[in-house]
Amino acid sequence: MMPATLLHSRSLAAALVVTFLSGCSLMPTYERPDAPVPAGWQQSDTGDARLPAAADIGWQQYFADARLRELIGLALQNNRDLRVAALNIEAARAQYGVARADQLPTVGAGASMTRSRTAADASPSGRETLGNIYSANLASTGFELDFFGRVRSMSTAALNQYLATQEARDAAQISLIAEVAKAYVAQRTADEAMRISKMALDSREKTYRLAKLRFNAGVISAIDLRQNETLIESAHADYAAQTRLREQAGNALALLIGQPVPANLPPALPLGKQVAVNALPVGMSSDVLLRRPDIRQSEYQLQAANANIGAARAAFFPRISLTGSFGSVSRELDGLFTGPNMAWSFMPQISLPIFDFGRNQSNLDLANARKNIAVAQYEKSIQGAFREVADQLAARRTLADQLAAQERGYQAERERLRLVQMRYDNGISSSLDLLDAQRQSYALEQALLLTRQAAMNNRIDLYKVLGGGLVDVTAVTPVSAR
């Protein structure tokens, strides 16, 4: 008989070997690729360094318009695209649960009854016999001993796909908030454009009535009168176009919030007041891009591809699985759990690929190729994000100069219109001079309005591309008030 100490030593050694093999993994060590972008942006305007980053500013703080905040809240509750993204998270979580469960044995309970008849010729007693066999057992079927980390690699890949799905949902939320804000700004712009068009129409109708009196008196020609009529119809067409744009903007908002726009929303702020003042610092490192959920999503997908390489490598090595059961068997139901009726079975299986005609090697090559694709996609996502921020920073700087210049030009044109109107009323300037001044003033005011819309959209987009829109706060305190 083997000495107890030797038996104990061999058992301990076997346990250590199993533990070592269980900890073995053929998955490559993950290393984050270097970001293929500069360390920062060339813009010199750094903003207020005391302000937090965009990703740390809640959307309730960033947007100052209470009406807009209400619309964003409705969109986060009802938008169908965001709901689909959330359901995708549930599906990915369930898939990860399935993969993780493969690391542990599955134990099931079963019971059976077999009734059989033995023919007389086959019976030892020479008489036909009837018999019953009852059994009850606990069994584990096909549990794989994950010596080479195949199952763990697949579970890691499923985990990273699940995390990537969560990031996709966060990216969808950021995009949704920006879309709602821009649709709301478009609606406010259309409102303002309708107001300007109506004022221009009223002014031109007044001018036309005066021109008609002068035409009847023989002061002006029919050409001047028809010119006034042309401008009136042009103003009618502009007003109809702005009405259409306003209705379409309302339809876009209804789609984004998942319901008709409520009538009891808070009062709207004037165009240009939707965003808190000086809410974003822009003198920053490009490392802030790593906080964007779409970048994190791309990195999780890269890590999943890296884990799949481990599973493909493990396919070259033996796979060991265990099947076993423990229970009781009896010819009598009353004696199933009494007496010497214990029964058990234990069946280890090992399989080793020998000739697979390159299937495992092709699977490994495929896993490596997919990882290289994921690396390229990760780098491309960072480059795209860097360009988005750079574009918005350039637009922020140039739009401010453009807006200031257009405001000065519009004020100068308004003064010219006032002077021409006075000269026309006193019979000094012709109707053509007045119509030209009205036309120019109206065009500059419309252009100024569109630039204000572009400036507001730029502030919304800058908040979006810097990863803002995930923080949810209950107490709304505009950043500009800090």
From TrEMBL:
It is found in: Cell membrane. It is a lipid-anchor. Its main location: membrane. One of its GO terms (cellular component) is plasma membrane. One of its GO terms (molecular function) is efflux transmembrane transporter activity. InterPro entries: MdtP/NodT-like (IPR010131), OMP_efflux (IPR003423). Keywords: Lipoprotein, Membrane, Palmitate, Transmembrane, Transmembrane beta strand. Belongs to the outer membrane factor (OMF) (TC 1.B.17) family. This is Outer membrane protein, multidrug efflux system. It comes from Brachymonas denitrificans DSM 15123. The lineage of its organism: Bacteria, Pseudomonadati, Pseudomonadota, Betaproteobacteria, Burkholderiales.
